[in-house]
Amino acid sequence: MLKVLLLSDFTSAYSRLLLKGFLRYSMEVGNWRFYRIPLSREDFNDEKAIETVIDIAQRWGADAIMGQLSEVNTERLRSIGIPVILQNYTNRVDGISNITGDYYGTGEMAANYFLRKGYTNFAFYGTSDTIWSREREEGFCTRLAEVGQHAYIYNEESNIRYGSTSDQQTLQAWLQQLPHPTALFACDDVFALRITEVCGISNIQVPQDLAVLGVDNDEILCNMSDPPLSSIVLDVKNGGYQAAKLLHSIVKDKQLPQFNIVINPIRIERRKSTEGYSVSDKLVLGALKLIETENNGLISITEILNRLCVSRRVLEKHFRKEVGISIYQYILDYRTSCFAEKLLTSDLPIMDIAFELGYEDYINLTKSFKRIYQMTPTQYRNYYKYGKTTTIINPNNQ
């Protein structure tokens, strides 16, 4: 029997999905037991709390420990000789197994999403207290800088999930000073919800004045928002599964090296908080609306030209100036992203999904897919839907 001590409250959508993946592996192999000790944020750095954890671990005979801890208390736990997996919070810890994430890549994905919509004003709302917020901000701002843009930044001193220390009036004043329209990326859905709440009492229209994007796709928080929040979906459940699998290996052979489980962003769940575009050219705006409202991008360039009563040469010139790529490339990328989303949300065979989305040439579809996602459609579905491979990728072109 393998005994695992869990030091997390599992109240967030992220933590619950992580636990689901962890439990899935434990049920496959069988004969695992769990002991849960929910730690508060204050307990992360409390020596007395950790000594209590150690006492329980030793009396219960724990084989492994997983949870959120400070660097100091992580070192104390390591000293008792039990394998520890850290769900990193403030910082990563060297020399120990970490459940971490491609936080930087998540920020890049957010930037790419807003850039595709034509925005030229950007903002970030997060906290300087956590590594995942700091690196999401860095990825977001670095990607914007690559195309000559910058972001307005507002950071809380601590995570507002654990009781808000936010000065709402200061946040409100900051939001009111942002130019319209602005695309705002929040470090997670809790912070994104705070933004839409403050906008609601500040006469700031979402998404017309401020488009808002969060992270974690916490369906309760996203649908509590008015309007509902768009959010980046993370590969959390598969990360929990892989963490349990590797932890099992280390428990059986303590000579094995420590590991990092990197949880990647998969896709963006689009809701009303990011509807619309920041495009002044009416021709381009009309084309974008047609592409993204016509059955997963199943509209030909000829039909777009006919509906807009414009020549291909004129539309192409306007489109490249506003969006930076050809209209053909935009349609191809958009349809490929719709296909990728269907791979994860539908149980149909891959070929059936392709035909449903109007693809007649599967070979060219696969080439386009590999260009964007660095793997085949089959590999993508196996990894992100079924967790059947350990390949790590960064699909940040959505």
Automatic annotation (TrEMBL):
This is HTH araC/xylS-type domain-containing protein. The keyword Coiled coil does not apply. The keyword Transcription applies. SMART domains: HTH_ARAC. It comes from the Bacteria. Residues 285-383 form the HTH araC/xylS-type domain. It holds the Pfam family Peripla_BP_3. It comes from Bacteroides cellulosilyticus CL02T12C19. The lineage of its organism: Bacteria, Pseudomonadati, Bacteroidota, Bacteroidia, Bacteroidales. Keywords: DNA-binding, Transcription, Transcription regulation. GO terms for molecular function: DNA-binding transcription factor activity; transcription cis-regulatory region binding. PROSITE patterns: HTH_ARAC_FAMILY_2.
